[in-house]
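A further point concerns the way the authors explain their paired sequence and structure data. Nothing conveys this as quickly as seeing an actual entry. An entry of this sort, consisting of the sequence and the corresponding backbone structure tokens, reads as follows:
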Amino acid sequence: MKEILHLLIATIHPYRGLLIVAIAAIFSLFISRKIFLPIFKHFAKRTKGQWDDMLVEYKAVDRFAHVVPAAIIAMGLPYAFPRTSELYNLLYRANNIYFILVAYLVFDAVLSSIAAVIQLDQRKRGLPIQGLFQAFKLVGFIICAILVISQVTEKSPLFLLSGLGALTAVLMLVFKDTILGFVAGIQIATLDLIRTGDWIEVPKHNADGEVVDVSLTSVRIRNWDNSITSIPAYELVSSSLKNWRGMSESGGRRIQRALFIDIQTIRFLSTEQIQELQAIKLLRPYLENKLHEIEYYNQKELTPEDYDVLANGHHLTNLIVFRAYCEAYLKSLPSINQNMTILVRQLQTGPEGQPIEIYAFSKETETVPYEILQSDIFDHLIAVIPLFGLHLYQRPCGTPQK
């Protein structure tokens, strides 16, 4: 069949043979784009998978259609011209360049499709894969450029690669930031250091906000004042940063704040005060158990004469009961994560009184609900403090008394 085709075209004028090859290539492109491409798109819409949809959306199939005419030209040129002619050599290399460029465009579209499919997965959404795929595209572009230059200069790609070795030092000096960013971008993607949508803090660059873009060489952060900070990728790898993603994924955002109690208001509770506090529902279980323990210890260890001195034996103070109330109150709130630490503790006494620190984790991780919950908790605790005979420390102001 090949011999017959060769004899048929050989009897025709060479330029007419070229015209036949060109018509065949154009016709094949027409068939690919008008017949096979619509069929592929039709089946892509009917399938459940996302891969074929993304290949269509990013035009990978459209670009692949151009491979068919390139293959027909490559097969038809030997029949239209002798292999030793200059025109054959010129058209053959031009067709090779066309094929290389189409292959790179298909490669680029396939990578974009893969990245889009990965982003569709809810568990992988926000992964900094964009920089990694940009690195692959860059490598593909370099290979494509080397192959194109080799076709234009009629030199082997290996010859061009050996020539690049002499320029390595110059390239590393000129493209130092790009190379560092390239390596850092791969580290960020493979180690999953940051993702789009993460809240990060980078003190070195005064950046505190949400990651809006992770590219091959830089990371863009929208700060909470709506300003944009762009940081080189290698800076994030070499310097310290705080990523709050772990807090969001854990389902608990820490509440850690102290109330400063006036030391002069801390005292032992009288029997009447204890009875009044027993009316508080959250305190009843604690007071019943604690009073039983105190009574058992005092009866065992104290003589009747010792009861008149409060320093002897065990007695409840208003601060102890207040701490117990704070803990019971936190455990009663549905918005507090009960599977994480709940702690009410005393800190070191200072010039502003006795700090009582509230340490718990809110189920609300978004800023606005979290701040509302935190404010509601401390509003309540500040309001109930007088019930325990306690007062918050407040520094005297300079306003004269009237």
About this structure: The first strand starts at residue 199 and ends at 202.
